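Sequence in, structure out. Go.
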Amino acid sequence: MTMPDLNSFGHDPWWLMLAKCLAIFVFLLLTVLVAILVERKVLGRMQMRFGPNRVGPFGLLQSLADGVKLALKEGLIPAGVDKPLYLLAPVIAVIPAIMAFAVIPMGGLVSVFGHTTPLQLTDLPVAVLYVLAVTSIGVYGIVLAGWSSGSTYPLLGGLRSSAQVISYEIAMALSFVAVFLYAGTMSTSGIVAAQSGTWFVFLLLPSFLVYVVSMVGETNRAPFDLPEAEGELVGGFHTEYSSLKFAMFMLAEYVNMTTVSALATTMFLGGWQAPFPFNMIDGANSGWWPLLWFVAKVWTFMFLYMWLRATLPRLRYDQFMALGWKLLIPVSLGWIVVVAISRTMRRDGSPGWVSALISLGAVLAVVLVLLIRRTVRRNAIPEFSLPSDPGAVSVYPVPPIPSPPRRSAPAPTPREHSDV
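Output:
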């Protein structure tokens, strides 16, 4: 098995680079079409009902029919919009989502018409930072869509999205620091090569859990779909959009889901390397087989998205912000310190079990602190009896409702004294 590195890129002819770009674009479009259909099927089964089963055999053409229907709808533009930004916002949301896939490794070295090339468009010494930068730009499409619509509810959705990307982009970036410390590089192909022995999901489990939560919040998916919460914001940032402009926002959402799932595969699940027990087969990590393992891992995360949507209710916005700022970011910072100490001890010659014991102790300490904090908060909440129902006891600190003030009787008017 030959691992590609940074020297493997930049030598392809122009037609091969163009073919790679086209292949990535087609792969993402087909993934979106299949993901929409699979999500509706999975949600239907989880909710004990049928999914799409009318359009085409077994409903397989439902996604294609929905796309044609959206394209044929009338594209309405409200009178009060900022038209240039209103039309540009869906484009800003879609293009960065596709650009981020340029540095995702989908396989090792293969031979294409006599040219040996990696199954990856390109790579950079700071490829992961490139992905973070591009995906954060894509959220500006949502922000501008909400602002330019000239309506209250889209504006609130755009504001929520801006706060959301600031909160969870920080947590996502911090979850990568431990990976950089272990891999010694920010190149995506180098990170995959560093996991040839043990995947980072086993060595850096807290970072993986933080990233999984952050990627759901970053893509505005349930239970973190606060920018498009139809319960209180009608449709959120895309309320005023229709036809192909609305379809582009849906395309951007599913392409972002695919991109962050591919990034999770690259950073924590060994990338395109075969899982156990297939890695014991000779040739499982050579040729075109790695593309199969990569797609299978990506679809594992895609199924997780669908499972969460069918299972969990939407969070309140204060809970959502508290999860990012009060839990994910502090845990990531503490875990970075633990990983740095562990790597330094390994470099200085300490045995591996010592660093493993330190990491395990840190994880157990965090879990213990969270359990104690939860218990203390529960015990610290006073209980009040509601005046309307003396027998009912509230779990939340509800103060007693003051009784309305009594209206004083009007003062008697003084009698007039007669002269008699």
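Check: DSSP finds 13 helices and four strands in the chain. The CA atoms of residues 21 and 121 lie 7 Å apart.
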